[in-house]
Amino acid sequence: MEGPAGLGRAEPPPEPAGGPLAGTRVVEFAGIGPAPFACLLLAELGADVVRVDRPAAPGLAGLPHDVLARSRPAVAVDLKSAAGLALARALVDRADVLVEGLRPGVMERLGLGPDPCLATNPRLVYGRMTGWGQDGPLAERAGHDITYAAVSGALHACGTADKPIPPVNVLADFGGGSLYLVAGVLAALLARATTGRGQVVDAAMVDGSASLLTMVHGLVGAGHWADRRQVNLLDGGAPFYDTYRCADGRWVAVGALEPQFYAELLDRLGVAHDAPQLDVAAWPRLRETLTAAFAARTRDEWAEHFAGSDACVAPVLSLTEAPDHPHLRARGTFTELDGVVQPRVAPRFSATPGREPTAAAPPGPEGEALVRRWGLPEDLVSAAVLPGAAPTHATPGDPPHV
What is the pTM of this model? Predict the structure, then answer.
């Protein structure tokens, strides 16, 4: 399967009127990684998100395509100035949700911690995204996806028998971080509809990445999962749930777990295996059989051979190939903004579809117009909003916590 020469995707859906979060106001204090991705999701689900960015800082090199900053306007504000702080507080007082992803204590030192914000806006949902959480012995320490996943036990389950291998940074940053923050914010908004009051959402990547392994912990407790890599049903230990190199050096993925799918796999490959599927002692011999079989044809030949079957065999596509897969084209899963191919928002809604993504833009008139629509006084906007923003999207003097 060749990579896309042109996207060739289905036409995007018509521009929706709002989205499921239409009318929800979110103020985002810019950071990096999981918190911006959470705000991207909120924005494309219809929320009215404004990103409060830092002033332009000389000597900082920008990223050419900051796709995590897409779909929402920004204003540049010096939060350490009286005017900037006043504007930030005015935005918070008008917001339904606040999202920040800085180290514990940073927002408090700026005068924007939960206590003063909830005092003036008791309906506020205050979303906090950190690696280690707001408390605990490691709360003040730096870290990244790999370290949070390591401590949570999630990294131990990923990789080969010889060593743990991080699955890019989706395990803690975006899976255990952004998605849990969004779930927490939405749950707090639902609770507010009943109680009338907001609350703090403490989303820690170490907690989220541990939570993602809930099923595996259950299997360990039941004696159905060994606490080692590549010996279990879903970690590459089972030969019928693994990847295989093809004649052209590319790969196919096999996920024939159920007996009927496993039988179809063997039948389509034209191979025999006389031992029961779950006979672990026979797995090495089965793996040799499957390895030799898949090495006989190219990846795309196997993709065509298994098309229309339930053997659960799929080509392993590269990042540049995936957007041109016929299924993803038909669903319009990807779009292109400023020459960068990127996924559209998920999930999908029948009555209130999400918004089409728009390209990331530096702080400017669109952000200023949005804060004015929120009812901020003109003199406050003029005094506090600064031209430009540093491309790192972090608060000056305080390192990010991702």
Answer: 0.90
